[in-house]
Amino acid sequence: MDFKKLDAYIDDLTHCGIPSTDIEVRLGHEVVYRRSSGHADSARTKPISPENLYWIWSCSKVSCCMAGLKLIEEGKMSLDDPVAKYLPELEHLFVKDGDIVRPARTTLLVRHAFTMQSGWDYGASAKLPNTVRPKNNIQLFCALASVPLNFDPGTRYEYGLSHDLIGALVEKISGRRLGDYLKENFFDPLGMKDTTFRPTPEQTARIADRYDYNNEKYSATLEPPFEGFGDVDMGSGGLVSSVNDYSLLMDALANGGVGASGARVLKAETVAMCKKNLLEGASLEDFRRWQGASTYGYGWGLCGRVHMDDKVSLSRSPVGEFGWNGAAASYALADTENKLSIFIAMHVHNCLYAYHVAHNHVKNLAYEALGL
Predict the structure, then answer these.
(1) Which residue blocks in the chain are alpha helix, DSSP H?
(2) Per-residue exposure over 29-41, b if at least 16 CB sit within 10 Å of its own CB, e if not
(3) pLDDT digits over 179-217, tens only?
(4) How confident is the model over 25-78, as pLDDT tens digits?
(5) Counting CB atoms within 10 angstroms of each CB, which of 55, 206, 215, 303 has the fewest?
């Protein structure tokens, strides 16, 4: 294994305006590559280190989906169940259709929450009255029942609050807050000590500075500290974690649901379900149009993106590789064929270079170094 090219590329990312890069690659539970490059503070006095934490934003979705899949493999819900079976407040939904609002023509199913086909975008919660202050995901979606969907469930793809709906289903069925359910069933068994919706003061002190990226100037500007989403455990993007921690989660997925600790958190057949694209027609085109070049050769499954065609993607990862990324350029990958996982944290928002170039290049250099 020769990682010299990967070392050089990661170190050079600072010249592209990315202040820091933190990455871990695991192969069959073994850490085969670990690098922390750049600085954790804008003054450049503290080198980034494995002790740093990050808001991982939409990489949180992987955890949330795992929680929903756990309930499915236990027979507590099914992908083809109507969501209203568990949340009756969502039985009669409406759709904004041009200038009119009409009753939905299709039934909102559990699978639509996983596949981003619910019809609620991220702007939906902003349409709630200021007097509505949800304390959990269940209350959030009971309130959202009054907000018209953007399309009939299952007919289109739109990135938004769908995975938070999974969080509401987990809370309703388990009787636990999403964060507590994840801690008990995934984080603690896997040895993840720094992954949480509500960091302690000690953890907050270890969060690396966060930046906004200027895609024209290849530069980054410091952003103010983020304090989280309040009372709701936002499964779509609310977790703080470390590269060491989240790598353990992705490693468990890459190894068929078994973590480096030896704990089985999902069945192998459940993980295998995540390797299949579930979008077709207009929904698949919606996904590819939305993400652009970074999704060429990819579809969307039960846990985020799914690799479909390496001739289009130019990726060295096998068909069926899956995972997702986050708004601050975090990146998660699970490859069950090679039992390989990758997790990257950058903590820089709106960085098109990361999504369209760096993530794929880092991935390919890692596979090349490993001879895969």
Answers:
(1) 4-12, 60-73, 110-114, 137-144, 162-174, 178-182, 188-190, 201-204, 243-254, 268-273, 281-291, 310-313, 352-353, 359-369
(2) beeebebbbbbbe
(3) 999 999 999 999 999 999 999 999 999 999 999 999 999
(4) 999 999 999 999 999 999 999 999 999 999 999 999 999 999 999 999 999 999
(5) 215
| pTM, entire model | 0.96
Predicted confidence band of residue 271 (pLDDT cuts 50, 70, 90): very high
Domain boundaries, the chain: 4-59+192-369, 73-174
Dihedral angle of Cα 299, 300, 305, 306, to the nearest 10 degrees: -60
Pick the CATH number of 73-174 from 1.10.260, 1.20.950, 1.20.58, 2.40.330: 1.20.58
Residue 239: Cβ within 10 Å count: 32
> 29-37: long-range contacts (C-beta < 8 A, 24 or more apart)?
29/251, 29/255, 29/259, 29/260, 29/339, 31/247, 32/1, 32/370, 33/1, 33/3, 33/6, 33/366, 33/369, 35/6, 35/7, 35/10, 36/243, 37/10, 37/11, 37/13
Amino acid in the structure at residue 342: I
Distance (Å) of CA 315 to CA 192, 276, 362 = 29, 17, 10
Give me 268's structure tokens: 């192998």
Q: What is the DSSP string of 300-351?
A: E-SSSEEE--HHHH--SSPTT-EEEE-TTS-EEEEETTTTEEEEEE--EET-
Tokens of 213: 């990226």
Q: Which two tokens stand for residue 304?
A: 């985020």
Q: Could you please state the CATH topology (level 3) that the domain comprising 4-59+192-369 is classified under.
A: Beta-lactamase (3.40.710)
d(CA 125, CA 81): 24
Q: Are 229 and 28 in contact (CB under 8 A)?
A: no
